[in-house]
Design goal:
This protein has about 270 residues and is of the alpha/beta class. It has one domain: Rossmann fold (3-Layer(aba) Sandwich), CATH 3.40.50. The longest helix has 18 residues.
């Protein structure tokens, strides 16, 4: 495995690269990083037939924080991703990611359509008309962190039901809490305020993304509503959608991704 750091658009980004096959760049979710993302294990990277680049987004993990909130919008994070691809000598790649990383991948495909050859969109987040309410929640969470610390956010999250595939999985809640406690409060508040500036590309722009796309969603999660995943699948001309409602459904995602990527290699 190769690991390193690269200066991209005014921020020092930490990354790692492993595996063999076509290039795939994976973006994690808001308040995650390479370590916590791997612990959540949405995908088994040992089963993915690709050269996988995983990196800490601006302000996350080992990557540098920068003060301008708009730098954390998904369109700007997409430009970071494209800049990292440049730094690593990657021309065309599969853009993949979960939640914030899903938004990043979609924006990268809109900004540089010739470079993104396929998409793997995992747990698409709130978008469009519903985004303003979610943005208010992120801003409120940032206020709570600054005033009361991360434990207040952890306590609030403990009152929420988990996504359907994780019902009864107390270990996931514990992993989330540990990942949140690892943050410096000011950094976590900063990225949450930045997330309030973010949204998916306009529907009309999404409809122009004519590349193979795999959409993986789950039920029971208002922050990642299955309705957005279904609408994306309808808008994207070459998409397939799989929705997980149980743990066994979730376990199938690695094989679905492996099959999808193998199909690209044969095309």
């Amino acid at each position: 495995m190769e690991s390193g750091r690269s200066a991209v658009r005014g921020a020092d980004l930490a990354y790692e690269r492993r595996g063999a096959g076509p290039d795939l760049i994976w973006g994690h979710g808001l308040s995650m990083n390479r370590v916590s993302d791997a612990e959540m294990a949405l995908l088994d990277w040992d089963r993915i037939p690709a050269t996988v680049v995983r990196y800490d987004a601006r302000g996350h993990g080992e990557s540098q924080s920068t003060p301008t909130l708009s730098g954390y919008s998904w369109s700007e994070l997409a430009r970071d991703q494209l800049g990292l691809a440049d730094a690593l000598g990657i021309e065309a790649y599969v853009a993949a990611g979960a939640s914030m990383g899903c938004g990043t991948a979609l924006h990268a495909a809109v900004i540089a359509p010739g470079r993104v050859r396929a998409l793997v969109l995992v747990i698409p987040p709130t978008a469009w008309e519903a985004r303003a309410a979610q943005a208010e929640q992120w801003a409120s969470s940032a206020d709570i962190i600054e005033n009361d610390g991360v434990e207040a956010v952890i306590a609030a999250r403990a009152e929420m039901d988990p996504p359907d595939p994780y019902r009864g999985d107390d270990a996931r809640r514990e992993r989330q809490a540990a990942a949140t406690r690892a943050w410096a409060p000011w950094r976590l508040a900063l990225v949450m305020r930045g997330a309030a500036t973010a949204d998916l590309p306009d529907r009309s722009d999404v409809a122009t993304i004519a590349i193979p796309t795999l959409v993986l969603a789950w039920t029971g999660d208002p922050v990642h509503p299955v309705s957005v995943a279904r609408e994306l699948a309808d808008l994207l001309p070459q998409s397939e959608l799989h929705v997980a409602s149980t743990g066994s459904d979730l376990e199938s995602w690695s094989e679905l991704t492996r099959t999808f990527l193998s199909g690209l290699a044969r095309a």
